[in-house]
Fold each of these.
Amino acid sequence: MENSQRWICRKCLLKDLPEKNYLRNMYTYIANLSEDDKVSDKEYECRLMKCRECVQLINGMCRICGCFVEMRAVIAVRHCPDNDPKW
Ligand code: SF4
């Protein structure tokens, strides 16, 4: 089993995981999404750039929706939850 697969737990909350593992889990989740579900790399970077410039971004999370923006922005059907959407 690959090292990255060892920390996939379908029942754990973030608080139940060792701190550095939940970030690794997020990146594993993103990497394993179907290409059909993801935006292009260019669109992803564009979305994240807008989040970086946004006052609602705190510690990687959007204060409006509570999502980790790196996870939200990669999914094609998601959008910025602001009343004036940035992406
Ligand atoms: S998702 Fe939208 S509101 Fe949230 S941090 Fe990104 S740009 Fe800002």
Amino acid sequence: MPMKTLREVLADADARRVAVGHFNISDLAALKGIFAAARGLQLPLLIGVSEGERAFIGVRQAAALVRSLREEYEYPIFLNADHTHSIEKVREAAEAGFDEIIFDNSSLPMDQNIANTKAAVEAIRAINPEIVIEGEIGYIGSNSEVIDAAPAGIALSTPEEAVQFVAATGIDVLAPAVGNMHGLLKSMTTGGADAARKHLDIPRIAAIKAAIAGAGVHYMTLHGGSGTEDADFTAAAKAGMTIIHVSSELRLAWRRGVEEGLRDPNEIAPYKLTAPAVTAIQKIVEDRMKLFNGMA
Ligand SMILES: [Zn+2]
């Protein structure tokens, strides 16, 4: 594949109405499975690390890992600082060489979210103007975990507030709330055909996309993709989602894979114990990326 920048990858995805897959990692097992899936399909890839995942891997270490794959394989793999809540952590990621940073103050009232996001945009641009900056509105829960019930206070975004937010902050990518939710309900983890699924508000995605395009912002991210109805992924990309995040499903696959690896009480090599997790994560990422690209 010809080497592109993340901005070029996003422009291409937007033009073709497909979505770039964004998958979170905490360790090398997940990175290995995700990268193998993307390479097999020859699709560009975003790796995400939340503040917690960054604290575990190391901010500069995460940047070095992703950069090493990009350089060795001449592959369009990029790194995102997922859900960054403070200017201090924004600066840390920008200085470490992240390709994208999500500043998330969506839990605050709109006027404070706007003021703080604007300050984050200025701080990032001063360090490296090439970094893609994402901001968030609405509320979709905050944790990539298995939960008993949907979090209280889920608030869907409107085209009006989306335009207000992008025009006032200067962000490149908007993350709205459109029926998506962080985490997986227990009823979504059964693995059977009867498992509960998330359903997206596709007309709302299209309406927000059209509204912000008028304000010069063309990219949107769907957070909390885990557990979404298959057809909704493809419809969301067609309606204007440029990036789609999946994390909780990979965490669940990691855990179940490691449990499988632990069945042999005599096996102690970590890379063998985690091998079923790598395989399971690769399969999920392949399935998801096909849906994001209308290939399923
Ligand atoms: Zn998210």
